[in-house]
Amino acid sequence: QVQLVESGGGTVRPGETLTLSCAASGRTTSSIYAMGWFRQVPGKEREPVAISAIGLNTYYRDSAKGRVTIARDNAKTTVDLQMDNLQPEDTAVYYCNASDGEWYWGQGTQVTVSS
Question: Is 18 exposed, middle or buried (0-12, 13-18, 19+ CB in 10 A)?
């Protein structure tokens, strides 16, 4: 079992930077092979933003490339998501995700980009 706790959401203005953080805990954290971030807006499906998996290239969704950086610390079992030059279309609830064969989700953190 893995528990995920997110932090760092909030309201920012267009063009600003925001970093989301996620920490994993639980008895199977040593088995986690992938951690990442997803986003969801009302009425739409949850979609991946960036994923870091052992042995694989880091995945970034096309709209995030060049503006988003995922940083994973395997020793601390944390994953951060730095988002630069945020735009109103980045407004969503962002969810941390981890997998050790099963998928685990954080509670979600709201990111709002508004002038």
Answer: buried
Whole-angstrom Cα distance, residue 17 to residue 77?
A: 23
Helix, strand, coil % over all residues of the chain, rounded to 5: 10, 50, 40
CA–CA distance from 79 to each of 12, 33, 43, 61, 106 (Å)? 21, 12, 27, 17, 12
Q: What is the pLDDT along the chain (115 residues), one digit of tens a residue?
A: 899 999 999 999 999 999 999 999 988 888 889 999 999 999 999 999 999 998 888 999 998 889 999 999 877 689 999 999 999 999 999 999 999 989 999 999 999 999 9
